[in-house]
Amino acid sequence: MRISEFQLKDIVNVTNGKKLGRLADIELNNATGAISALIIEQNGKKFGLFGKEEEVVIPWMHIVKIGGDVILVRYGETEPNEDER
Prior knowledge:
The protein is mainly β and 85 residues long. The protein has a single domain (3-73), classed as PRC-barrel domain (SH3 type barrels, Roll). It is built from one helix and six strands. The chain has one helix spanning 3-7; strands at residues 10-13, 19-28, 35-41, 55-59, 63-66, 70-73. Strands 4-3-2-1-6-5 form a six-stranded mixed beta sheet, with no helix packed on it. InterPro entries: PRC-brl_dom (IPR027275), PRC_barrel-like_sf (IPR011033), Spore_YlmC/YmxH (IPR014238). It comes from Domibacillus iocasae. This is PRC-barrel domain-containing protein. Pfam families: PRC (PF05239).
């Protein structure tokens, strides 16, 4: 798969079903050349005077599924405490 194909896909959080944004960049493992994380630019300010876009880093192990139109990821999950189990 090419990086240009990744960039066309929406990235959706399976925890809450919300769209996180689009792929802005990737992190590569220097030793293996494998992708170690996806960097997502979230919707918001676009290089405005009062701030820049927020970036979200999704480690490769948090990617659930790469489909034809979307990439499903786990983001923002917390471990349940003992009372919630």
